[in-house]
Amino acid sequence: MSEFMVKTVNLSKDFKMTRAVDRVNIRVPKKSIYALLGPNGAGKTTSIRMILGLLKPSAGEVYVNGFNVSANPKSIRGQIGLLPQFSAAYYDLTPIQNIKFILELNDLAYEDVSVKISDYFEKLDIKPGLLQKPFTKLSGGEQRAISFIMAAITDKEFLILDEPTSGLDIARAKYIRSIIKDLVEKEGKTILLSSHIVSDLEELAEYCGILKEGNLVFQGDKEEIVNTYSPESKDFEDAIVNAFQAPVTSKSISSEVLK
Amino acid sequence: MKEDKLKLYQLKALLKKDISLLFRKKIAIFIFGGPFILMFILIGLPALFTSQDALILLVHTEDIGYLDSNIGDSIVGNISSYFESDETIEVQVTDNLTEVLYTQELGYYIPNNFSELVFTGIPVTFTIDATLSPYLSSTFEVIQAIANNVMVTYLANRTIPTLQNYELPPVSLPEEQLLGPKAAAIAMPLSYMIFLLIALNSGSYTLIGFAREKRMRTMEILLSYTHNHSFLVISKVITGLVASLGSTLSYVLGILVGTQLSGNDTSGLLLIFGLNLDSLGAGDIIISLIFVVLALLISTLITMAVDCNLTREASERISPLISIGLAMFFYFVVLMNPFATSSALLVNPFYWCYRLALLLIARVFSMEIFLYFSLIVGLIVILIFFATRGIQKEKSLYLE
Going by CATH, does the domain composed of A1-79+190-259 fall within 3.40.50.300? Predict the structure, then answer.
């Protein structure tokens, strides 16, 4: 089996006249947290959707856990836990009904994971009274926290989390980061993370891939990104900002580990 | 992980979610309460403020016909015993045949001795009337009951034609002969039900379709977690059927309550759809209803297949129209001739349902049954395929 959970080979996607993703070679090592970064419109969501098998690549290939997703998207359906960019849940259903729906869709019984869910509720300060309200009546932060729980409890080996702490208060964001770390360290899961929040990236990301204008301009671990883009200040945030502002060259910088 | 290759648990979860969403307050009011309130307002409220026009029964008193006995007067006399305190029926007498020929403009013609039922073109009116609308059909039943009573009482020893509406036409069409009286009696109510229910339920599609999933941004999750994307379509279609049937029930209840309020004599399905339980039998009515549900299923699938393959704005405008257009075309052609067959009808899926139901009711087991059955099954499979392919397209992930 491959040592990479995700491996893309010259992955490209065209939308009419625009090339959204251009010959990208992402490598997400198993049992790690890989952060896919980039300015708005860099091609992150498009790349994630191709990894999920929801978008057909215009060229190149995607492998997830050894399965060729581009050739057979069905092969990984139901294999990836997903937290989409926006809180995706049924507004008219209560948080509990939404969670139960996701569990049933994944052939999991609520009773089997109720302890874990209660633990998440407690950590993320979801009061019991909220659980019986329609999802739409919850605040943005509460909705995000519930959406995160819906992704985390699916018991998938590989999770894609798009902006997991977006809109959350400091406490909830901190607990979500700790849960993400536990998912990798204690449960051996692999996480592909997309985030603009530097604290998330600093604390969580082992590897980073920086997309710009559809190109993967950098891929490596945190130390490498700092050494490459902010060698003087050694500041992680500066390194990311510099990476975002650096011109796109035909050759991307990629760590030896991820080649 | 349990061994379930088909992953039917996913279909179960999707169905549970979709049906649960159907019973949310606002949607439930629209789907289940709306038709009831509408029918109640349309029928019940006006009835409280308007009076009913009397139904006119015309008797040709000069006709003594081949029975050589004027029983028209006896019928007229008997009407009072049937409608003792009913002011909704008025009996008029005519002494010329010209007036009889234009009787449809006046009301309903009672032949004095039924000779004309056999020997002139007028009885044709009766035969078709019996299936044209619930009102005509019920009137005919009443007339028939009165006439039978009169004959039993006054003409017990005479040989008279049996008073059955479907045996009356002097010249019946080959198709009518083939399909028989039961199919003839159910033809119009069946086509009316198919058309009416499709028209009534087309509006509720937007509440159960994929546009709602797009608005809630749940398409990504559904497509990622569901192994067989056809389940997403099947679940929506079944939910659409539940909504349609609930909506229809609400519509029927609205009419019944409305007519009760108006003081009209009602006889359930006979009043609403022209379905006469006494003459048709429960079995035939159940067959009819099964095919009405099948037509509704096809209608939902057509709407969904179009919806999923067009852009959101275009699909919201076009998708219900295609289904209603097909149903309307089918109904108006069949309305003119219930046994019509034309190439335009033969490509209409609602006609397939209608025709198959008639063949089964008539117990005519021919290759035609196999043909229509294959066409219906084939179309359902194709529509599920197209709808599934549609939701897998890139545009289903984006809010257009």
Answer: yes
